[in-house]
Amino acid sequence: MDAMHGFGAGAAPTRAAQAAQRHDPLTLAERRLGWLDRRQAVLAQNVANADTPGFRPRDLTPFGRELAGQMRLVLARTQPGHGSGSQAIPQARPDRQAGDVAPDGNAVSLDREAVRIAETDTAHQLAMAVHRSFAGMFRMALGR
Fold this sequence. Notes:
55% helix
């Protein structure tokens, strides 16, 4: 039996094991890291297009809102087919907080993007620390 995921080798995981796997600290940290990597790429694209006429900055749906939406679907499923919409992968969307627009139509603020990049870097460091901590606890529990 796989101690981390609650099912034996080759066996299909149960619905409860799948839900537990989605919400365990390691998986959550990995999902957060993936989201942060995608966000860093979107922010870098915003900075790269700071001089492109008509360019509007983009950002991802906040991780907490993405996670809450997915958890709500899991918790609200009371009948087969109930709440069985598609779970969209968070993609870059126009940034609604973009303020001033330059005469050429560009709305990228390098100051705002620098702050977001710094926030993303700090969140990445925290998610890595959580991941390392829980991985270390699992190794210690397994005697490795």
